[in-house]
Amino acid sequence: MSQLLLDNFRKYIDLTEDEEKHIMAKIELASYKTKSILIQPQDDAHFTYFVLKGILRSYTVDQNGVEHILSFSTPGWWMADMYSYLGNNPAIMYVDVIDDCEVLILHKNDVEQLFIDVPKLERFFRILTQNNLLSNQQRVLDKMTLTAEERYERFSKKFPEVIHCLPQKHIASYIGVTPEFFSKMKSKMLRNK
């Protein structure tokens, strides 16, 4: 179904052809248009998306209606509301489509069965979870210790393929500044080059 997903697995585990077929039989393919909301607070989001094409973002909205972007997922990346997925709780964030996308959907109960049927997958998802934990910790530390300019530079290195297709307000939210501040900061950075 998807060479991109199999390549993603191969970064950390070796699967037999039969194991690959068994895994792919549990996965659902879906396409969504830009601005589609895939998850919203209170949904039962007991599944994860693997992006084949397009861009997803996860975010929360505070009491003043301000969006706070937690992450972006581009082709080859995973996206889930981990609070709902791992904790079997209602979702606490939104996931929407920034750019028309194709995704593979893997439901948690299927993953649990696959852990029994293909134990190597447990290692794969453990490594993904560890990498996600490290990335989130680094992001918190960056927010506390780096300037907005430095956070923008890190963002540019992390998402070089999409930096020019994202609305400026999304980048501003991700690095933790207002769109107005971001616009002034970028102008200053361009003048200083």
Set down the secondary structure blueprint.
Layout: H1 3-10, H2 17-24, E1 28-32, E2 37-39, E3 47-61, E4 67-73, E5 78-79, H3 82-87, E6 94-107, H4 108-117, H5 120-145, H6 148-158, H7 168-175, H8 179-191
Antiparallel strand pairs: 1-6, 2-6, 3-4, 3-5, 3-6
Helix pairs in contact: 6-7, 7-8
Structure commentary:
With 193 residues, the chain is of the alpha+beta class. Helix content is 47%, strand content 24%. It contains 8 helices and 6 strands. Strands 1, 2, 3, 4, 5 and 6 form a 6-stranded antiparallel beta sheet that branches. The radius of gyration is 18 Å and the shape is globular.
Calculate the mean pLDDT score and round it: 93
Which regions have little confidence, pLDDT < 50, spanning 5+ residues?
Answer: none
Helix and strand run = HHEEEEEHEHHHHH
Shape: globular
CA-based gyration radius: 18 Å
Derived from helix and strand composition plus strand pairing, the structural class reads: alpha+beta
Beta strands, count: 6
The helix content is 40-55%
Put simply, the count of helices is 8
Largest sheet: 6 strands, antiparallel
Distance between the termini: 45 Å
Beta-strand level of the residues, as a percent range? 15-25%
Quaternary assembly: single chain
Record keyword descriptors for this entry:
alpha+beta, 6 strands, single chain, globular, 193 residues, 8 helices, six-stranded antiparallel beta sheet
